Amino acid sequence: MYNLLKKVILCSVVLLLMVIPNISLAKSSVNVEKISHNLMTLEQGDTYLHIEINTNREVKNFSIQENPNNKYQLIFNIEDAQISNISRQEKLDGNIAKKVFLQEKKDTVQGKIYLQEEVNNNYKIYSLGKKGIAIDIFNSIVNTPVASDVALSNVKNKIITIDPGHGGSDAGAVGPNGYTEKEGAFAISQKVASILNQSGAKVVMTRDSDVDVYGPNASARNELQARVDVGNNANSDIFVSIHCNAFVNPAANGTQTFYYGSSYQGQRLAQSIQEKMIEANGLRDRGISTCNFYVVKHSYMPAVLIETAFITNYDEEALLSDDEWQTTMAKAIAEGINEYFSN
């Protein structure tokens, strides 16, 4: 009798589906599949944070507003949506916003963006079509451009690729107090780019936020080739990779610049930058050296890799994390690049 009842119920469901073919047993939702972000710069120099919420199909209903209970938060909602198997928290640039946090509330995905300063009206949300939605946030807390003390007339109209070492899933070397190579390299690189842009150069960054260039957890070769591709595809005049050195002995110290052995122009570029850095920072001069580093070897243009200081050295880690020292190094690197183009 029990088995007969089961069969009757099953047959009834099948017949119902045949009679009403458009019936759906589950509501189709938008799936939030990825969060990404970049710091962007407009032609007039204004910088803003661009956040993309990528979905499996177009989002029809979405909104954003200030959190009425927290003036340091923006809240956005995506209706008829759910979160896929991704991290619900993403660290952001740190200048405009700290992080974004996702949660599900009934049939809505709600996101909270934690800002560095109070919300103003300088933000917007808009559709990316089938890719999802985007949020742009402008904020006055972004670092002001770094001005060079000397005129850098030789870099005007030059295409210069700046490669901040490591990033994203790769922290690089870590100092005794926890400061990471990817942080120091990126901070100095941003300042170098600012100086060169103000001087009329066209700067191309291999990364403009804390991300992997190829993608998270890529092979070393794929990640490095992705950086090389940025410079090669831009037809850059030079490629400058900025790093922090490291060694097991914390006493190791100083500044050094590398170039590919068969590149005379690479040697000239390395020498110009090294001399300016040592003049500016007063650290031990470890000189210039040849190398087979991937990004230096495979770039089509003259390329160098700078080891600004030893992050594993207590004193130099403190310098690398200091904004004023970062600016000093950025000016020196930019001036070294300008010197290279003088001949």
Automatic annotation (TrEMBL):
Record's GO cellular component terms: outer membrane-bounded periplasmic space
BP terms from Gene Ontology: peptidoglycan catabolic process
Domain (MurNAc-LAA) ranges: 228-338
Pfam families tied to this protein: Amidase_3
Key words of the record: Hydrolase, Signal
Cleavable signal peptide: 1-26
Coiled-coil residue spans: none
GO molecular function: N-acetylmuramoyl-L-alanine amidase activity
PANTHER family: N-ACETYLMURAMOYL-L-ALANINE AMIDASE, N-ACETYLMURAMOYL-L-ALANINE AMIDASE AMIC
Protein name: N-acetylmuramoyl-L-alanine amidase
Species of the source: Megamonas rupellensis
